[in-house]
């Protein structure tokens, strides 16, 4: 295992993301020996912390991580804190000098990772100052890491992209979508392209429909302020669900590398045409949770939420892909808060046999084969097939092959952020999103958003917390003579 060399400059070093995700991720790499002597981290934020206090914060963020206190202290010694207002040019000069000093001290070969762990409104000014105050290294690599949300519509996303592109090339920009770091999302490619069994049936000829569910059982919690400006469509559909759709439906990339995969994703996303207002009404449903006994507050009663808010906490929809492979295969998606159970899953429903000669228990139809990928909280897959019922009956009856990823292996596997950090150090952009993928998904989302913003409260469906969402989401499939494979915890 080769040791990586780099200086990390984390803007927002005192924040929640840095403490909960980034420091444990870096430590994970250190614990594995992928980071050793030749790395350093500058954390910058507004608070006037000392290095000593910063080290305590780092160690605190590692409580529960493996390794000795000594090991954690040695790791924390690589961290430097710089009190910094990102809008003030003078601070970048101090930062540049510290970066140059650490580069020498730790022999970092001029490799720099700029991590924007702050509110997006600061990204443009950071990129501008990084360039103008010459923080970019002229040897080694410069990589910029950008968190979601990447814009709130196409126009703002493009503005943001133009701004950061003043200082960084597309190749140097790593846009995070942490769903791409999840084990089962990463399993989509091997499943599709290393198994002829699936590869040859992955089209409209054999697949009836695809269902993507990202269900949460929690409400908005402490993210109310952000959520009121976003809603489920922006928060989950534009990014995570569209990335999953792209992974599921792209053509086979020419090679297993980032440029080929991005090209394949881009091509399929371009075949998802934005809806007209009438199509939005016909194909998308939005909902908002209401509370009650034992299920907590209604969305509109939560702190920092407007009492007449029309922000959606639930979205369901049908997406169609206008190309040869997928023409006529609906992709149904749904995501929401305060649902009956937390579960992220993909159900690929195959077409049933057309000419059934076998006896069946009820009517004459045989059920569809279904391939289910469970992304979380469990991790694994199920394949539901048809077999003979046990005993004297010859009737066809469904059974399921289950594959749960090995829990011990899984416990040893890195967290999504650790994998993303490693990919960043390796210059591997496979698990990051390309600007053109985002642009395509924003065009689709904007068309829906515009209609919903005009409609206001009209068409907003309320659903009870602890259920599977509004009945309109079931009707969306019933209209097509289909139903959700996953009906919720009770019926599963
Ligand atoms: P946070 O509010 O906890 O932290 C923000 C950081 O920015 C703090 O360190 C603060 O001191 C610093 N900051 C604010 N204004 C500053 C200024 N003018 N100059 C210098 N520093 C300043 O936010 P967070 O939850 O850590 O989120 C950071 C980013 O990551 C956001 O873009 C968020 O959308 C994204 N994100 C966060 C999470 C998460 O789990 N927290 C998950 C996904 C994405």
TrEMBL record:
Substrate binds at residues 178, 182, 216, 235, 337, 342. Pathway: Carbohydrate degradation; pentose phosphate pathway; D-ribulose 5-phosphate from D-glucose 6-phosphate (oxidative stage): step 1/3. Residues 9-186 form the Glucose-6-phosphate dehydrogenase NAD-binding domain. Pfam families: G6PD_C (PF02781), G6PD_N (PF00479). Keywords: Carbohydrate metabolism, Glucose metabolism, NADP, Oxidoreductase. Residues 189-484 form the Glucose-6-phosphate dehydrogenase C-terminal domain. Catalyzes the oxidation of glucose 6-phosphate to 6-phosphogluconolactone. The gene is zwf. Its EC number is 1.1.1.49. GO terms for molecular function: glucose-6-phosphate dehydrogenase activity; NADP binding. Gene3D superfamilies: Dihydrodipicolinate Reductase, domain 2, NAD(P)-binding Rossmann-like Domain. InterPro entries: G6P_DH, G6P_DH_AS, G6P_DH_C, G6P_DH_NAD-bd, NAD(P)-bd_dom_sf. The active site is at 240 (proton acceptor). This is Glucose-6-phosphate 1-dehydrogenase. Belongs to the glucose-6-phosphate dehydrogenase family. It comes from the Bacteria.
């Amino acid at each position: 295992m080769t040791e990586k060399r780099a200086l990390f400059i984390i803007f927002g070093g005192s924040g929640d993301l840095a403490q909960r995700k980034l420091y444990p991720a870096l430590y994970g790499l250190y614990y594995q020996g992928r980071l050793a002597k030749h790395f350093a981290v500058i954390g910058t934020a507004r608070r006037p912390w000392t290095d000593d206090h910063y080290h305590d914060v780092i160690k605190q963020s590692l409580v529960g991580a493996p390794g000795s206190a000594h090991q954690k202290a040695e790791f924390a010694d690589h961290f430097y804190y710089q009190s910094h207002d990102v809008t003030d040019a003078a601070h970048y000069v101090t930062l540049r000098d510290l970066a140059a000093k650490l580069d020498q001290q730790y022999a970092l070969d001029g490799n720099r990772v700029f991590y924007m762990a702050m509110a997006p409104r600061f990204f443009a000014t950071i990129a501008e100052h990084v360039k103008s105050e010459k923080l970019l290294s002229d040897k080694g690599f410069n990589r910029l890491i950008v968190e979601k949300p990447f814009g709130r519509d196409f126009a703002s996303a493009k503005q943001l992209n133009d701004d950061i592109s003043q200082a960084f090339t597309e190749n140097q920009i790593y846009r995070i979508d942490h769903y791409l770091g999840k084990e089962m999302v990463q399993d989509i490619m091997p499943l599709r392209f290393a198994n002829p069994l699936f590869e040859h049936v992955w089209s409209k000829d054999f697949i009836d429909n695809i269902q993507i569910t990202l269900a949460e059982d929690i409400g908005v919690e402490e993210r109310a302020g952000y959520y009121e400006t976003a809603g489920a469509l922006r928060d989950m559909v534009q990014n995570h669900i569209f990335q999953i759709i792209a992974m599921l439906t792209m053509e086979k990339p020419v090679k297993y590398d980032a440029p080929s995969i991005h090209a394949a994703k881009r091509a399929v996303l371009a075949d998802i045409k934005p809806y007209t207002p009438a199509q939005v009404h016909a194909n998308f449903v939005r909902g908002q949770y209401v509370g009650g006994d034992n299920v907590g507050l209604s969305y509109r009663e939560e702190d920092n939420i407007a009492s007449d808010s029309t922000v959606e906490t639930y979205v369901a929809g049908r997406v169609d892909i206008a190309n040869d492979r997928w023409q006529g295969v609906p992709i149904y998606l749904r995501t929401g808060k305060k649902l009956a159970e937390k579960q992220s899953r993909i159900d690929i429903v195959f077409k049933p046999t057309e000419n059934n000669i076998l006896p069946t228990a009820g009517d004459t139809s045989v059920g569809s084969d279904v391939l289910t990928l469970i992304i979380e909280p469990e991790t694994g897959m199920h394949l539901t097939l048809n077999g003979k019922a046990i005993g004297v009956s010859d009737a066809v009856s469904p059974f399921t092959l289950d594959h749960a990823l090995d829990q011990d292996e899984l416990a040893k596997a890195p967290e999504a952020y650790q994998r993303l950090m490693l990919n960043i150090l390796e210059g591997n952009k496979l698990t990051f999103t390309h600007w053109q993928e985002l642009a395509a998904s924003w065009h689709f989302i904007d068309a829906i958003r515009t209609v919903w913003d005009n409609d206001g409260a009209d068409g907003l469906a309320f659903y009870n917390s602890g259920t599977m969402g509004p009945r309109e989401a079931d009707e969306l499939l019933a209209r097509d003579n289909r139903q959700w494979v996953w009906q919720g915890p009770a019926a599963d």
